[in-house]
Amino acid sequence: MSGKSVYVIDGLRSPILKARGRPGPFTASDMSLSVARSLLSKHSEYADKIDEIILGCVMPRADEANIARLIGLRLDLHESIPAWTVQRNCASGMQALDSAMGKIQLNHSNLVLAGGVEAMSHAPLLFREEYVHWLADLASAKSFQKKLQVISKFRPGLLKPIIGLLCGLTDPTVNMSMGQTAEKIAHSFNISREAMDGFAVRSHIRLVEAQEQELFKQEIEPLYDKRGKLYESDDGVRPDSSMEKLAKLRAVFDKPYGKVTAGNSAQISDGAAWLILASEKFVKQHNLAPLAKLTSCHWAGLDPSEMGLGPVYATDKLLKKNKLSLDDIDYWELNEAFAGQVLACLAAFNDAAYCKENLNTKKAWGEIDQEKLNIHGGAVACGHPVGMTGARIVLHMIHTLKQKNAHRGIATLCIGGGQGGAMLVETMQ
């Protein structure tokens, strides 16, 4: 099964829109629908031949249950096309691609629309459990006197909401937020605050330069909101980012002495990405020219309190399975959940003792050239819509390889709950 080729015919994503304290202009379903519609309009001659739709999403709204199916129906594709939603936290978009790969390799599908979406700005505010019980008691009270008794127990504190997003970004098994896990691994590898801030500044500078060179033109599909406002680029980037400005920010997760700040962490944001995957049989039948080939995908688990090191574990599996070294990889997309987390991963790859003890290797994997890593910036600058990111970094890796006339790249990311995912992408050289 693993030897069967899976091809990427095309892909598009939305601009990534930074959350700014209130629900953004697009719901997850609206955003992903717009991108999917534009992508399929480019390939209308075989859009009706799609076998399945698979979408990664962590927290769809209550009216977006099985959001993949909702999108499929709103696209006016035939109702017989099945659709399903996957959830692997930060790697949900990559999981959708991996699931599509599996269906194609098993000859269950020839053409799959797969991707990821998240509208983090629409994360819900939840009622406290005590308030839910109070409402239940009020609803079940039959007499006027009993209702008064229940009402007399009301306290304003019952109305204090629970922020759903914060719950989702906290690991209940170790009772640590994702930021706290980043603090832990940064401390383990002696990553300094200055190094984190420097990495963050570089992420913004690289994204600004890529935008100025219009390197995302073939990748991003502009969006219009209900008022006709145009969104055509990732809007969280800060062109004026500097070490001096970042140094003024205080620690968020380990006050007051921590190193992880809002400035060297991924932004909370909204975004959607889709790719069209096809079998070799379908490519030949329709005489298509694929953008790239998805060669291999691997997953790994690790201590949830060190979840940020997931890319090291997953990439280790991928490299071993495909008998590759770091030198065989032309470019890397390592998702920037936190600047310190990326730097800790780089340190772990190059630490012989760590690799021997945790990865069962005889020596360190080596040093990843940062001139080949996230060369157009990453989530610190553009944002990390959790359900979308796994698909976004694969799509961007494809375009990076084509722009650089390179052959092989790895897209990898850490996953809340203590996992890592890595996907090997190859161009059609």
C-alpha end-to-end distance: 22 Å
Beta-strand percentage range:
15-25%
Radius of gyration using CA atoms only: 22 Å
Arithmetic mean pLDDT = 95
The secondary structure category is alpha+beta
**CATH architecture term of the domain at 171-215 and 295-427:** 3-Layer(aba) Sandwich
Class of the domain at 171-215 and 295-427, according to the CATH hierarchy? Alpha Beta
Helix content: 25-40%
CATH superfamily label of the domain at 171-215 and 295-427:
Thiolase/Chalcone synthase
Uncertain spans, ≥5 residues at pLDDT below 50? none
CATH topology of the domain at 171-215 and 295-427: Peroxisomal Thiolase, Chain A, domain 1
- Report the principal-axis shape: globular
Continuous helix count: 15
Largest sheet: 10 strands, mixed
The total strand number stands at 16
Walk me through the structure:
The strands form four sheets. Strands 1, 2, 3, 4, 5, 12, 13, 14, 15 and 16 form a ten-stranded mixed sheet that branches. The protein has a two-stranded antiparallel sheet with strand order 6-7. It has a two-stranded antiparallel ribbon with strand order 8-9. It is globular. Among the domains are: 129-163, no CATH class; 171-215 and 295-427, 3-Layer(aba) Sandwich (Peroxisomal Thiolase, Chain A, domain 1), CATH 3.40.47. The longest helix is centred in the middle third of the chain and has 20 residues, at 193-212. 37% of the residues lie in helices and 19% in strands. The protein contains 15 helices and 16 strands.
